[in-house]
TrEMBL record:
It catalyses: acetate + ATP + CoA = acetyl-CoA + ADP + phosphate. InterPro entries: AcCoA-synth-alpha, Acyl-CoA_Synth/Transferase, ATP-grasp, ATP_grasp_subdomain_1, CoA-bd, Ligase_CoA_dom, NAD(P)-bd_dom_sf, Succ_CoA_lig_flav_dom. The lineage of its organism: Archaea, Methanobacteriati, Methanobacteriota, Stenosarchaea group, Methanomicrobia. Gene3D superfamilies: ATP-grasp fold, A domain, ATP-grasp fold, B domain, NAD(P)-binding Rossmann-like Domain, Succinyl-CoA synthetase domains. It comes from Methanococcoides alaskense. GO terms for molecular function: acetate-CoA ligase (ADP-forming) activity; ATP binding; metal ion binding. This is acetate--CoA ligase (ADP-forming). Its EC number is 6.2.1.13. Keywords: ATP-binding, Ligase, Nucleotide-binding. It is an enzyme of class 6 (ligase).
Amino acid sequence: MLEKLFDPASVAVIGASRTEGKVGRAVLDNLLESYSGRIIPINPKADEILGLPCYPTILDAPGGAELAVIVVPAVLVPDALEKCGLAGVKNVVVISAGFKEAGIEGSKLERRCAEIVKERGMRMVGPNCLGIIDTESGLNASFAASMAKKGNIAMMSQSGAICTSTLDWADARGVGFSKFISLGNKADLSENDFLLEMEDDENTAVIAAYLEGVKDGPKFMEIAREVSRKKPVIVIKSGRTAVGSRAVSSHTGTLAGSDEAYNAAFSQCNVIRADSVEQLMDYIRAFSSQPIPDGRNIAIITNAGGLGILTADACQFAGLSLSSFNEDTIGKLRGKLPPAASLYNPVDVLGDARPDIYGFAIETILDDPNVDGVILLTSPQAMTEIKSIAEVVADKCAHTKKPILCSFVGGTRIEEGEAILNRHHIPNYPFPERAVASMAALCDYGVMKEHEYVLPEKFDVDKEFVSSLLRDAISNGRRTLGLESFDILRAYGIPVVETLNVKTLQGALDACENMGYPVVMKILSADISHKTDVGGVRIGLENADDVERAYLTMMSDVRRYMPHAVVSGVQVQKMITGGKEVIIGMNRDVQFGPLLMFGLGGTYVEVLKDVSFSVAPVGVDVLKKMVSSIRTYPILTGVRGESSSDIASIVDTLCRVSQLVSDFPEILEFEINPLMVLPEGQGCVAMDIRLTLGGE
């Protein structure tokens, strides 16, 4: 799709410069260093640059170019793009800055550039980027300080500084790349386009990205879900503490920051999330050089007991299991290792272990079918032959299909050994915890790539009824709907408590007599988000006297706390007992769309913050995981002799809510709180609802 972007026969540098230190000169120097195709400098003030014929415009260059790199002031970029289009150039990299990152005028300029590119049938990287690198073709169309080493990692980044720092870090460790892409402002080409490009790139085995946001969230999920089945996709996402600019009033809106949406989206499309630049680098080293393990059973080999214990602890925290060796393995270790050595996992070969002892232990443990991977630790003690041990590790790595990650812990004493490991592309981590985290990522991906995507279930619902109800509400200027909108839930097959809406005390008394006691009474007001906070809920009303007293007190409390709230009456509900309260909510995320939330319900949800998230529409497998992932899930399964709650009914309700909020993008926020979940087999009942609507 973008072959000529990364492997062009000719490259024009529009804004090439004679002056050292200028970006236009740096791009030209980089191309001359490694690229074998035709290089065409464009500069109206020069006849030649660095021995190459120079032309006033791309239209004057004989034969044109397959790729143009634009390095001119922002105001001149639209004209340069127009000329590229007329010259038949199909791919451009706009390095120039001064676009949307510079303010309103820059944004207008960027939009104009995007329009020109679309009109002329071109594809554009940037603007405001470092450029691109392809090690297979030798293309270095960037102003990076050096060319990347050849390897199997494709890296894209929205930050030019992250690009240059990563290249320098990788150069010191012998880590190579297939492609390096500075995304810039993503006015045209984005992470989605490059994911598709790298999916079938035979030179790429691992895809890594630094992202500050995604251009099209649902499309990103769709593409990443497919790509990650073939190759690991590792992403670090910055801006984790950002909150939405729109004011929110529901529990879901309060708890659902943008980072929760990214976590949910990445999990659902099998993207591995790195929490720091350091972790991103750690992960790509492991994935680029080591096989994916078949399971999560890990063996630890160490010459220092303390390091072994710390690593075992880290494995437990990371969700890895310590392998249980079979008797044959134990027997072989016992026959060769010193009597004081620990034969069980972690295997402590002792501080004076020679390289051949390390080699024997590695080989024996790798042969055990209960071992899926090895973490090898080395402490530089006086008798430790670091260099020779590293050579032994390199030899064993070359003859196994199981991952080996090393942690030679130290400084100057381990430098020679680390250099040998780097030369053989064996990851070495300065501390064991980082090796464990990388091994856990390898194991996680082994599960992810085998996961089958389950399509969201589609229910037979009365969509037209809900559409009509919401359309009427919007046309009448009603943006918030509460208890009076229970019919929306009924239309989507979600059970609701027996209710009656009334406007007067006498109406409440009559309703209670018809319904039967005990009852619950709730204030009816679209202006009141949290009824309990203003005295707008009364439970356990056993007779007419209770109802009258509750009604009068409730009205008094609400007038005192919210004197300007419009009260339309009260809702009387049949009181449901013997269940657990949960909350189901939705907040429409600006990047990914409807973000579902689940947790224990009631008044403490914002304090406990024990909730989980998924991006709708979503399949039943993800929703089951969503329910079981909260910390308090054991309360739903039954503790201390309690019966289990009807978890299947929770999942069913989530499925129906997923369809509802996907069907109606005008629903900005939605919440059932509480959903009363009865004992297993008895279902669940929605007790309260609130939703916020956007415009037509």
